[in-house]
Write a structure and sequence with these properties.
binds NADPH dihydro-nicotinamide-adenine-dinucleotide phosphate
């Protein structure tokens, strides 16, 4: 018996393939949807781009999963009507909801290239709307069904949430930090009804994230390679893959394995969040010179 047999999951985020890296450049959402479906779940996939959703569906079907185990819903997750459709069609089609993965999210770069406190205030609104507010409202709408199923919510946060500063992505970091507090508080509220809420906090992952924040392919790859080659950025020396994050999310959605974890935001970042300025350099070499 597969571990998610009989379960129904919604995974938000439309799963793009970018930057010309065919084998590994799918988004985190796509990796989650494929893993859940392979482990027996019926999965609703959603995003704004029908072509990418269809690609994801075909990748799932190629894994030997029946087409009727996948429901595609094209919608903007920040829209109330879109969220209603997402929940209602999932229930109509699959009859229940066990797992909600709030993966859709991104940062917004200022159109004039401003960073820090000068970044346009409309970017703050967009960031909060997508990365925080849409998750709160979708949770409200899914709550009834998750309580019926004694289900699980897993949110996707970011290392940008802190506790270190993140001035280049100031509003994105703030929105994800607010999400972390929502994860903690919602977890305590909903565990009374048997629903668990947890979160993952990825560091750098090779996905379409660069494209989303309007970075060119070259600039994104340059950034990734620079971070991989500098232990001050990523101590383990490599960017994460979407499958790394998907595996942790599946663990948090699997009550048999993680039932005692409630309201936690778990770092998955190759060690990045443990680095202090002092550790970024080989102090023994400095002392020897
Ligand atoms: P992607 O850009 O590949 O995925 C983000 C997804 O969110 C896209 O598929 C996008 O789909 C979807 N999305 C954005 N806006 C909306 C919207 N309004 N309505 C519906 N869907 C929307 O990047 P990742 O896979 O990397 O990102 C997944 C999550 O991981 C995000 O929450 C991100 O913040 C987080 N994360 C990523 C890190 C990384 O290094 N890659 C690091 C830390 C956190 P579409 O635009 O097609 O609708």
């Amino acid at each position: 018996m597969l571990r998610f047999s009989g379960k129904v999951a919604i995974v938000t985020g439309s799963f793009r393939t970018v930057h010309g890296i065919e084998s590994s450049s799918n988004g985190i959402g796509r990796a989650i949807a494929i893993l859940f479906a392979r482990e027996g779940a019926k999965v609703t996939i959603t995003g704004r781009n029908i072509k990418r959703l269809e690609e994801t569906k075909q990748m799932i079907v190629k894994n030997g999963i029946p087409e009727e185990h996948v429901l595609e819903i094209v919608t903007d997750i920040t829209s109330g009507e879109g969220q209603n459709e997402l929940i209602n069609l999932t229930i109509q089609t699959f009859g229940r909801l066990d797992i909600l993965v709030n993966n859709a999210g991104t940062g917004f770069l200022d159109a004039e290239g401003k960073t820090g406190v000068d970044q346009n205030i409309s970017d703050l609104d967009k960031s909060i709307n997508l990365n925080t507010r849409s998750i709160v409202t979708l949770t409200q709408k899914a709550k009834k069904y998750l309580i019926e199923a004694k289900g699980e919510i897993v949110n996707v946060s970011s290392k940008a949430a802190g506790p270190q500063a993140s001035p280049d992505f100031i509003y994105y970091g703030m929105a994800k930090a607010a999400l972390d507090q929502f994860t903690r508080s919602a977890a305590i509220d909903l565990i009374r009804h048997g629903v668990r809420v947890n979160s993952v906090s990825p560091g750098l992952v090779r996905t379409g994230f660069g494209e989303t924040i309007e970075m060119s392919d070259d600039a994104f790859e340059k950034m990734v390679q620079s971070m991989e080659s500098n232990k001050a950025y990523i101590p383990c020396g490599k960017a994460g893959q979407p499958e790394d994050i998907a595996n942790l999310i599946a663990f948090l959605a699997d009550r048999k394995l993680s039932s005692y974890i409630i309201g936690q935001t778990i770092a998955i970042d190759g060690g990045s969040s443990l680095i202090m300025g002092m550790q970024a350099f080989d102090m023994m070499d400095v002392l020897k010179s």
